[in-house]
Write a structure and sequence with these properties.
about 250 residues; alpha/beta; Rossmann fold; six-stranded mixed beta sheet; four-stranded antiparallel beta sheet; 8 helices; 10 strands; ABC_transporter-like_ATP-bd
Length: about 250
């Protein structure tokens, strides 16, 4: 666990009688793309809300590159770039203004912010849209802006919570390609929450959440072999069916 970018140990969170997370433990290896797969209601969003300091766990511990999210939240959050499930851009600001505002919130000096913004615009091929207001952009392009925004601070860890929600097939494909290229080129650790298996078929590791518990944890090949199927999607569905049968 000490070598992990993210270490989750015994994490639990409930809302009244509903147990959103129940003794969840797993690790995200440094430099990996780790997929957090789960059907709606599996606990993915609750887990991300705890990871990003929005919620406090009832029990357990989360650390990011060794910094405990509860004991040292500023240091832990400083390692992260985040793309939330719901858009967080200011629709009335331009693309460049959104990125500059985010850089300012993190206290980046002007020259560093300018370089990071230019790099993000170039990486996601949106330099020609820098002066456009965000409300004028398509959903897929807005997601590229959010990715560029998340990377302004050069984070060691990128958290993606259902980032392709609402995107068309082409935009989703471009987002997947961009994230995997980023991880390969910069060694950025990625934790990607989704229920769309095809997006993360190339992940280094897969953690399957089902009804608030870890139902499987391993490489795609290990999960496929364990379920005796021929694809990650088939393995995921088999794991989900098994979890539902046990609950029943």
């Amino acid at each position: 666990m000490t070598a992990a970018a993210v270490a989750v140990a015994g994490l639990s969170k409930g809302y009244g009688r509903v147990k959103a997370l129940d003794d969840v433990s797993f690790a995200v290896p440094t430099g990996s793309v780790t997929a957090l797969l789960g059907l709606n209601g599996a606990g993915k969003t609750t887990l991300f809300q705890i990871l990003t300091g929005l919620f406090v766990a009832d029990a357990g511990r989360v650390s990011v590159f060794g910094d405990d999210i509860a004991a040292a939240p500023v240091r832990a959050l400083g390692h992260m770039g985040i793309v939330f499930q719901q858009p967080v851009l200011d629709l009335d600001l331009t693309v460049r203004q959104n990125l500059a505002f985010h850089a300012g919130l993190h206290g980046l000096k002007r020259h560093r912010a300018a370089a990071a913004i230019a790099a993000g615009l170039a990486r996601f091929r949106i330099g020609d849209l820098a002066a456009r207001r965000v409300r004028e952009l398509s959903g897929g392009t807005r997601r590229k802006v959010e990715l560029a925004r998340a990377l302004v601070t050069s984070p060691r860890l990128l958290l993606l919570d259902e980032p392709s929600q609402g995107l068309d097939t082409r935009s989703r494909s471009e987002l997947v390609a961009d994230v995997f290229a980023l991880a390969a080129e910069r060694g950025t650790t990625v934790l990607w929450a989704t229920h769309l298996v095809a997006e993360v078929a190339g992940a280094d590791r897969v953690v399957v959440l089902h009804r608030g518990r870890v139902a499987a944890d391993g490489t795609p090949a290990e999960l496929i072999a364990a379920e005796g199927v021929d694809s990650l999607e088939a393995a995921f569905l088999a794991i989900a069916r098994s979890g539902a049968a046990e609950a029943a």
